[in-house]
From TrEMBL:
Residues 20-215 form the Adenylate cyclase class-I N-terminal domain. InterPro entries: Adenylate_cyclase_1 (IPR000274), Adenylate_cyclase_1_N (IPR024685). It comes from Marinobacter nanhaiticus D15-8W. The lineage of its organism: Bacteria, Pseudomonadati, Pseudomonadota, Gammaproteobacteria, Pseudomonadales. This is Adenylate cyclase. GO terms for molecular function: adenylate cyclase activity. It comes from the Bacteria. GO terms for biological process: cAMP biosynthetic process.
Amino acid sequence: MTAVTAINLDFADGIDRKTLKRLTDRFLKVNAVRVERARAALATRQQVVLDLLPLIFHLNHPSLPGYLHHDCPYGIAHYQPDGETLAAAQRQARSFRMRSAGRRPPDIQSLFVMGSPGTLGHSVASDLDVWLCHQPDLESRGIERLERKAEAVSRWAETLGLELHVFVFSASEFREGRQRVEVNGENCGSAQHYLLLDEFYRTGIYLAGCYPLWWLVPSDQEADYDLLADQLRDFRFIRADQYIDLGSVPAIPPAEFLGAGVWQLYKGIDAPWKSLLKLLLIECYARTREEGPLSLEFKARVYRGMTAPDRLDPYVMLYQRLEKWLQSLDATERLDLVRQSLYLKTGIPLTRLERVSRSWQSALLTELVEGWGWDRRRIGVLDDRQRWRAGDVQALRRIIVSELTHSYRFLSRLARTHAVKAAIRPEDMSLLGRKLYAAFQRKAGKVELINPNIAPTLAEENLSFHHQSSHPSGNVPGQGWLLYRDLETPSDAFWQPVIRRSSSLVEMLVWCHCNGLLTRATRLNLRAGDSALSLGGLRGMIEDLQSHLPVPEAPATREILLEESRPLRVLLFVNVAVDPQAPLTEKGLHKLSGRHDSLGFSGGRENLVLTLDQVILNSWHEVSVHRYEVGDTLIQCLKNLLAARVAAPDRPPVLTVHCHDAGHAGSIERRLQILFQDVQRVFFVGDRGPHPLRYIIQMERRYFVLQFHDGQPGFVALESWSALLDHLQKPQPGYVPIVLDRHALGEDPALNAVCQASQPDNIQVFFHIRDDRARVWVVDEHGSLSHWEQPFFSRRHLLAPVLRFLANVSERRQLRRTLAEAGGELEITCAEVVRRGADWVAERRLVTNDELPIDGFELQAVGVQEGDQPVRFDIFCEEQEFTALEYGDQLIPAVVHYVNSRRREGGGYPLYLTDLHLPHDLDPQVYQHDLQTSQYLHYRIRLEAELNQALGVSAPFG
């Protein structure tokens, strides 16, 4: 082999054009080998992409791929296609003919490929990253068209099975850090500049156009790069239009380490081997700054006359730098991970290759592996990744995550120690952080994805699901589940290793599904023990997951990650491995009634929903599982789902309910599916919300009121009918209507009619007469509901007192307001609740106070509040005053005695309060300027009940 002499450029003593030409030719010689290696690594049908890429951008010919517009910029400086390229173009399009563009100035300066092509690290899964550098004066419209053409060329390459990314920018933009890019799947955005340039100079393959000016500045004079570059141009040692200047690679600024480290973590989610190597290199750069970047070492070797491609291979040089550094630290475990990462990055299975068919890559990799001292067994384990099991992958993933975390913490400490501001835009940092959070962050219920491209597949031929009560040893505690593989007999579980343990069968199934263990071909075995699960139920749940829970193959997009995460799909599994009818069958309750509501079944009104397993796939592609089996499971689940919906009220998740094995499974599914749809519809009507309302659900003999407070859902559990009515009377911050679930309060259809007829900004009185009793409801200006029942004598005795009372309260409220606020008096309306066929409706009744005069006495009460003591009342009847201070506990008897003494014979009708005054500090901690009508009614109902009880008359009661 002919020896190659070193080239020494001494700018102080003078340089000549011949030396510069020799230097350029030397770099081109190294480049030619890389081009051929990159081409040979592609499949035969993909090689045309590399062959035609310069011609496609040089001509903008309608017959060539990527053509979109006749006015798209074209022309690469100094490019002349050779015969082989023109022949490839004619094979691609028979109508293609080369036409001269005349003396038109080219719009494109240079075209490069960078990254792993042509290196040891290139594999069948590698992509092509192309840098297209346009002229700095190209107008924005031309740049946009060039970008669209680049996208079209990428789509053409995709049809050939090749992933191609073309980045369009100018050299001046790059030098100034103004390239118009954002963080996405293939672009690091603002995360790094000099590190990216360092990688470009040591891996870049020149395809066409201007040569890199960086070649002509010796590595030991890199600090004076700008001065020397100007000298080369100004003194015309080179023609300025023959070289492109992307800038120098000085010592990497510490500001880049944090952003670049986070970017490599981002990439490491889907490509761990490559990112581990790069992340360790970043740490190495940060710890050994005196050695300089690898690109300078590459350039120095070329200057010294080293042109052997294996010695200049970027991945070999990267490994050698990491090996030297880690050996100095005696970090043998980290070095072993580096070796394993490099081996797996290449994708070359050495144990399965015949020596006669070995390529330059396999020969170079064999040389490295022999130097590491690996035996054939160690290599065979790595080559047989398709046979790795979940445990193998989990163990390796823990090592990978540990290493990624170690490097990131080091870089974070470095940034804090040196008070370095990361060279990355805050929005890009936030975006990368969200991606890392979605991939690596552990949180309750989140399903861990254990195989980020570590093994080709984790699919199992046979899986056995065992309830702990069925374990052959008989001493496995708890009520959880165990997962095994390939059990020939159930007794084999005694000695076979457990793949996974979980207290939730659904969590175990989702973990298997998301990590690819379960396929449609997987054989299933079940040992249910004392659970109520059947093999059919197990298969049904797996089919539900495969049909309704897609496992995303691509990471979440930039646009999605910029938004708050939101649920995309929700699967609810009801009563998994539980029979809700077992206790009912023992009691015979299912035979005692025709009630078929799953939340109030049979005469005992039993709730058939005992457990819920909720599976959520969100927009960040996280999957989580939550089990509800203690307390009010359904309401807790519903509340959490509503909370997740708040993030995107206009984009509801796809929700499905599944129930297998359990009795009445079909009716349970339908009941919950409708319930969840109804609740979401009313709170988020019109795809907006959450709207203020109170939603009532009845389960068993209990009631639950769902309501949003400060944008977050909550619920109140009420144990009885009277407790529900007390709760509905409570004050509200604004108008909050009451909405009944379609199965709630079926025994009281009149109340449903009242709730449906209520409207804001008025006071509505509803009444229903049944024989000698009447029910009265008042819905006030904020939707609070007051209710009582009383004897019915006549409509005059029923309505006149309450209308007079409400008019007095309304009048007092109006008089308190300023003149500026006047004019907004609330209307008081009446409606009678009647039955029309099968429906109950509220029909308006036009009545006024004047039409319904009151006979007898008008009672008034004035409340007094002292500190945090209960409100006490003074009562006025005609001109007689009865004060609590004077009468104490005998106040009510004294009033009743006076009324009886003033009544004529036969006056046995009830007493009514027609006016009531309340203090504005009912709440000792808050002054209420405007009390709600329901607050007045609350005390009116209580006082009337006490008065009429003392009078011996059947009293109104709430």
